[in-house]
């Protein structure tokens, strides 16, 4: 990661921690106040557009948790109870499919290091 990307990332985190909207102007002012040399304004614009309308704190708290998308999709298709039940069944089906793939690879009789 370049210095410009790090500076824009840290500036965005500072703004999010203070509860301030993340805009390109605010990112640029924090970067200039920090004295980071040679940061082109395009970085602030890119980060501001990427984080527009998103809760940065929530994104940081939910890093690696992939369970949030399935209930939302289920709730959109019907009632919350029906969506929740459907979402609970999906991981089991995916696990079975993955196990079947692994078994079929082992049946071939050769592996990566054979």
Automatic annotation (TrEMBL):
The keyword Manganese does not apply. GO terms for biological process: cytoplasmic translation; translational elongation. InterPro entries: P1/P2_N_sf (IPR038716), Ribosomal_P1/P2 (IPR027534). It comes from the Eukaryota. Signal peptide: none annotated. GO terms for molecular function: protein kinase activator activity; ribonucleoprotein complex binding; structural constituent of ribosome. GO terms for cellular component: cytosolic large ribosomal subunit. Pfam families: Ribosomal_60s. Residues 68-114 are annotated as: Disordered. Residues 89-99 have a biased composition (Basic and acidic residues). CDD domains: Ribosomal_P1 (cd05831). Keywords: Ribonucleoprotein, Ribosomal protein. P1 and P2 exist as dimers at the large ribosomal subunit. Belongs to the eukaryotic ribosomal protein P1/P2 family. Plays an important role in the elongation step of protein synthesis. This is Large ribosomal subunit protein P1. The lineage of its organism: Eukaryota, Fungi, Dikarya, Ascomycota, Pezizomycotina.
């Amino acid at each position: 990661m370049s210095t410009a990307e790090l500076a824009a990332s840290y500036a965005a985190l500072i703004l999010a921690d203070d509860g301030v909207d993340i805009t390109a102007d605010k990112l640029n002012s924090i970067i200039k106040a920090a004295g980071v040399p040679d940061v082109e304004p395009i970085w602030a614009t890119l980060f501001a557009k990427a984080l527009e309308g998103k809760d940065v704190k929530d994104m940081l708290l939910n890093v690696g948790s992939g369970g949030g998308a399935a209930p939302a999709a289920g709730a959109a298709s019907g009632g919350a109870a029906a969506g929740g039940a459907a979402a609970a069944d999906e991981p089991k089906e995916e696990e079975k499919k993955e196990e079947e793939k692994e078994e079929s690879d082992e049946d071939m009789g050769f592996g990566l290091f054979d």
